Amino acid sequence: MTRTRTPVVADWFTGEGEEFRLLGTRCAACSAVFFPREDGFCRNPGCGGGELVEVPLSRRGRVWSYTDGRYRPPLPYVSDPDVAWEPYTLLAVELEAERMVVLGQAPPGVTAADVEVGMEVEVVPGVLNEDAETVWTTWHFRPVSAR
Ligand SMILES: [Zn+2]
């Protein structure tokens, strides 16, 4: 049986491989960029409000900060207590053009010891979770040096 690949959140990213990009929105009036996307109203208090247009964000950025998740988070976070907790590395990345900081996990196998502040990373497709029918997709930030 082929499992469907479903984004864990709709319309936050698009594309495959080299074309994979995060999606934000940009205010047509003041050029402010939002991620997660803002589709309701421009949140810039100095802006009278403009049309919010979907824009792909920079593929690359630099590590602004990072940490590792070694412990299972408490409820209401959903995790199976019968499955061993897999530590993961969480990166805060300043995107190249937008200069905004976006959170994302590093791919499996990239540990906090492999990362340093200022390191160049790129956004790549990733898998958040899998069950019998569905592969839940997300984004990862991978060190460019690890290509
Ligand atoms: Zn605006």
From TrEMBL:
It holds the Pfam family zf-ChsH2. Residues 17-52 form the ChsH2 rubredoxin-like zinc ribbon domain. PANTHER family: BLR3430 PROTEIN. This is Uncharacterized OB-fold protein, contains Zn-ribbon domain. The lineage of its organism: Bacteria, Bacillati, Actinomycetota, Actinomycetes, Kitasatosporales.
